Amino acid sequence: MLDDFLLFIEVARRGSYAKTALALNISAPTLSKRIKALEDQLGNPLFIRSARGVTLTSFGKGLFDQLAETTLDLHSAVTQSRQQDSASFVLHCPQNLMMGLLYPAIEKFALEKSNVNMVIEAANSNVLLSQTSFDLAVRLGQQKDSSFYQKRIAEVAVCLVSKINCSNKNRLIVPYSDSQLHGIEFSQIEKQYEQKSIVNDITLVRKLVTSGAGVGLLPMTEVNELQQSFQEQFQYESSIIFTRPVYVLWPNKPKPTELASFLINSIEQCVQNIPALQGKVVNL
Question: Where is each HTH lysR-type domain found (predicted)?
Answer without folding.
Answer: 1-57
